[in-house]
Amino acid sequence: MNNTKKVAIVTGGAMGYKSGGASIGGATSIRLAKDGFCVVVVDLGDMGNKTVEHIKDAGGDAIFIQADVTITEDVERIIKTTKETFHGLNCLVNCVARYGSGMSKNIVDITEEEWNETLNVNLNGYFKMAKYSIPLILESGGGTIINISSLAAFNALPNFSVYSVSKAAINALTRTIAVDFAPDIRANAICPGFVKIANSENNRSPEELEKWYSDISKQYPMRRVCEVSEVASVVSFLAGKDSSYINGQTITVDGGKMAADTHEF
Questions:
Q1: Is residue 1 predicted with pLDDT exceeding 50?
Q2: CA-CA distance, 258 to 179, in Å (whole number)?
Q3: Which of 12, 75, 134, 182 has the least CB density, counted as fewest CB within 10 Å?
Q4: 3-state secondary structure of 247
Q5: Shortest CA distance to 25 belongs to which of 41, 37, 7, 44?
Q6: C-alpha separations of 220 from 18, 85, 102, 118, 194 in Å
Q7: Is 213 a catalytic residue?
Q8: DSSP codes joined into one string, 202-225
Q9: 252 contacts 151 by C-beta, under 8 angstroms
Q10: Is the pLDDT of residue 265 over 80?
């Protein structure tokens, strides 16, 4: 390994679980590797190997660690392996997320188990990864933490209570890190709107997908849905020197949706 290279951990870094399709974490891992980072891809699913294959095929350096970011021992293993393999850490991207049908309920109807399990992944997983990564980032001379949040942190979706709560909490966590660990570590959150990922496609046919994306696009001034590469590009910017004075921010990547009244007369 080239010890002069910077090192990044990306949680939720597996490609889409069905066929290695598009995912935000996968695209982010590949983009950071293209930027010259050695990348530690972390995920529960073994499609993380697919992400590493993409990176290595393009001449990059990466490893896959199959782990659960809600388990402290797994998180400690991630950090230990990162240090042993690449000798440091300069960037943490928290991208892992829980998103399931059981979450599609208001606070009366959702089960306590679903509420707690979602917060355990979407918030506690981010907290644990930051908690155990920060000492290594500081030891490595400083760096960045980038948390993938959501537009749902600002605009609550009907009957999707815990998801919005978890994403708003991620934004608050980001600000606390930014304040407590500057100037050595900058922390920012990215809040995408709808993004085209393989795991959302379910069993829709190509024709059904085209209509689905077309219907969603009507809500966005850009009149199309976001590609995973467009989120990864913002991660790349926040991880690099060109964003050196950006700290504690939540950056929306929503094609102008928050700025728009999409009512059609």
A1: no
A2: 26
A3: 182
A4: coil
A5: 41
A6: 27, 43, 27, 27, 9
A7: no
A8: TT--HHHHHHHHHHHHTTSTTSSP
A9: yes
A10: no
